[in-house]
Specification:
This protein is an alpha+beta fold. It has 5 helices and 5 strands.
């Protein structure tokens, strides 16, 4: 279930899912959106500082978004099945501190996680609160490879009562 703003606590952790980056998908994404040699072929990547084919950072970010949306939909569906009320998730006013820390190579499996780092009551939209989180991805060895700080609007329980 998606918690209301009042129920969310700093330190709350949510695994968003896992994803394995396959060679053909890395190349297909790069051909469309990030056509740099280290994303387009093993041969091209071998001549770069990476030494082998790796996923575009934008590809890793896109997978984050896919898994985040899927997790939110699954949590809303689970709430409906039990008759519970899930809070609405609003828009994000933005993110900061995006980092591609280590390369993601073909065959790597990333686990994406959200960790709540704080909350702010919205003064301009009292029916919403802002939840601040670290969004992280670790590879199969447990190495942090991708991170950013996110903020998203989350419905307040008082908005439902009013």
């Amino acid at each position: 279930m998606i918690d209301f703003f009042e129920d969310i606590r700093e330190g709350d952790t949510l695994e968003l899912g896992r994803y394995t980056f396959q060679t053909d998908e890395i190349i297909r994404f790069a051909e469309k959106y990030d056509p740099q040699p280290f994303h387009l072929s093993e041969e091209g990547a071998a001549r770069t500082h990476f030494g082998r084919l790796c996923a575009s950072g934008w590809h890793t970010a896109s997978v984050f978004m896919k898994l985040f949306v899927a997790k939110m939909k699954a949590m809303q569906a689970a709430a409906r099945e039990t008759g519970a009320t899930a809070a609405k998730i609003g828009p994000s006013p933005g993110f900061e501190d995006l980092k591609w820390i280590k390369p993601v190579f073909a065959g790597d499996t990333l686990t994406y996680t959200r960790i709540v780092t704080g909350k702010t009551e919205s003064r301009s939209r009292p029916e919403w609160g802002l939840v601040h989180s670290d969004m992280l991805a670790h590879n199969q060895d447990g190495t942090l490879v991708f991170s950013f700080k996110a903020t998203v609007f989350v419905e307040r329980r008082a908005a439902r009562a009013g």
